[in-house]
């Protein structure tokens, strides 16, 4: 019998979304518990994750209510740690490649997300900075994509794809709806550029990732749109006042 898994997550968090995608992709049974990041339960940090962040899981131990985690269960946190942990629970899957070269490529691709795409996307959406850094990140990620595979490393959906999917999903929603601290109209302009021939390979990959059932089934677009509508409008107004 498989050990119990309780995932502590939050709909808004792209890092927590990574864990949800992995669990769905691998078909791992689990219990999901939403954490309000603006009003975290007092028990969460001392009993689940001392860093007080999501995602985190309890693994093993007795089956108990999520808000009463057992001291007998293992506590594991951080999205990239969890992606590989879940893959290890399903050793026959292709979610984490078996050969050393492919595993290295997966990790290198994830490094590009962490150090190139995510910071650039955040700077444009949340700070209203020039999109030039975002275009450079698009260029870099596109340069890493193979010519004849569906996903980041191969035709198999791997941890690399699960790692980037939440940023594609959230970035795409923000650009499509022109949500951001930038001037009105700049978001849709960036999206038009992303769909241009220059980024044909990247956009094809972007669409393939977002069409993956494990991504679609774990993404609450309506929730994010309603949240972003207010959050990014406030950031835009704040940005304009500072000019």
UniProtKB/TrEMBL annotation:
It comes from the Eukaryota. Keywords: Transferase. InterPro entries: Glutathione-S-Trfase_C-like, Glutathione-S-Trfase_C_sf, Glutathione_S-Trfase, Glutathione_S-Trfase_N, GST_Omega/HSP26, Thioredoxin-like_sf. Residues 3-94 form the GST N-terminal domain. The keyword Transmembrane helix does not apply. GO terms for molecular function: transferase activity. Pfam families: GST_N_2 (PF13409). PROSITE patterns: GST_CTER (PS50405), GST_NTER (PS50404). The keyword Transferase applies. Signal peptide: none annotated. One of its GO terms (cellular component) is cytoplasm. Residues 99-243 form the GST C-terminal domain. Gene3D superfamilies: 1.20.1050.10, Glutaredoxin (3.40.30.10). Coiled coil: none annotated. This is Glutathione S-transferase.
């Amino acid at each position: 019998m498989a050990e119990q898994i309780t995932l502590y997550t939050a709909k808004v968090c792209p890092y927590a979304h990574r864990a949800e995608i992995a669990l769905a992709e691998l078909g791992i049974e689990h219990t999901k518990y939403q954490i309000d990041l603006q009003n975290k339960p007092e028990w969460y940090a001392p009993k689940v994750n001392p860093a007080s962040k999501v995602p985190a899981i309890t693994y093993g131990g007795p089956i108990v209510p999520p808000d009463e985690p057992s001291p007998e269960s293992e506590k594991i946190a951080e999205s990239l740690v969890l992606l590989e942990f879940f893959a290890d629970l399903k050793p026959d899957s292709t979610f984490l490649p078996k050969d050393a070269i492919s595993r290295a490529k997966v990790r290198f691709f994830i490094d590009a997300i962490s150090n190139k795409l995510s910071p650039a996307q955040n700077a444009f959406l949340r700070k209203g900075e020039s999109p030039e850094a975002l275009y450079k990140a698009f260029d870099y990620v596109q340069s890493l994509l193979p010519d004849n595979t569906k996903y980041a490393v191969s035709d198999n959906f791997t941890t690399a794809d699960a790692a980037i999917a939440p940023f594609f999903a959230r970035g795409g929603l923000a650009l499509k709806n022109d949500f951001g601290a930038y001037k009105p109209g700049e978001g849709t302009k960036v999206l038009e550029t992303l769909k241009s021939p220059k980024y044909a390979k990247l956009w094809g990959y972007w669409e393939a990732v977002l069409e993956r059932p494990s991504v679609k089934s774990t993404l609450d677009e309506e929730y994010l749109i309603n949240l972003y509508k207010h959050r990014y409008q406030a950031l835009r107004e704040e940005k304009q006042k500072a000019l």
